[in-house]
Each structure stands twice: as structure tokens, then as C-alpha cells.
Amino acid sequence: QVQLVESGGGLVQAGGSLRLSCAASGSISSINAMVWYRQAPGKQREWVATITSGGSTGYADSVKGRFTISTRNIKTTVYLQLNSLKPEDTAVYYCNTVPAVAWGQGTQVTVSS
């Protein structure tokens, strides 16, 4: 079983930055990609960014140019650098693998105006 632990969230003013981490542990046989999602209050969980085992990345239009997904070892830790944060980025941020495993607890990002 793979366990996911997200960290690095917090309260930041608009225009600020945060760096989120996603640590994966447990029985990891194959990870094709790692994905960040977020869920704002009263809204459905939405896709934010993806990084594949080959290093390719993809971003939602709403975060393109502001967020950067990276990893040193996709089987252990994936990062999400959040820059130029906006109040609409406020959400609980989650990571997951491809194929997906059980969700972690997420990390809260709150951006004040």
C-alpha cells in the first residue's frame, strides 16, 4: 500500500508563494505520474498539475505560469511551487499517483486579499 502525505500549506497574502510537498511511502511498484489536485470550499476537486515518470509536465489553465510541479524521485517526493498566489487559489491541495491510491489528508492553502 502507498501512503501519501501532503505538507507545506499555510496562510499567505495575495502575491505570495508557498512550496507544497507530497511524500509517498509504502509498497511502490510502479508510478506512471504524480498529480496535484485542489478542492475549494463548496466545489469539486479539480486537477492542478501533473508530472510523468519521464519528466513531462502539464498544468491547468488557471495556474499555468504561476505554479511549477517538480520531483527528484517520483517514487518518493513531488513538489508544487505556488507563486503569485491569488485568493481564488484558496483550497485544500492533494496529491495522488497514477494509477491512483488512497487519498492523503491534504494541505490547506489560504490566500488573503
Taking all residues together, what is the mean pLDDT?
95
In sequence order, what are the helices and strands, one letter per element?
Answer: EEEEEEEEEE
> What is the rounded distance between the termini?
40 Å
Biggest sheet details: 6 strands, mixed
Helix content: under 10%
Q: What does the overall shape look like?
A: globular
Q: What is the CA-atom radius of gyration, in angstroms?
A: 13 Å
User: Which strand order do you get reading across the main beta sheet?
Assistant: 2-10-9-4-5-6
In terms of structural class, how would the helical and strand content be classed? mainly beta
Q: What's the number of extended β-strand segments? A: 10
Strand percent estimate: over 45%
Tally of contiguous helical segments: 0
Poorly predicted ranges (pLDDT <50, ≥5 residues)? none
> What is the assembly state of the chains in this entry?
single chain
Characterize the structure shown.
A six-stranded mixed β-sheet has the order 2-10-9-4-5-6, with no helix packed on it. Strands 1-3-8-7 form a four-stranded antiparallel β-sheet, with no helix packed on it. It is 0% helix and 56% strand. With 113 residues, the chain is mostly beta strands. It starts with a strand and ends with a strand.
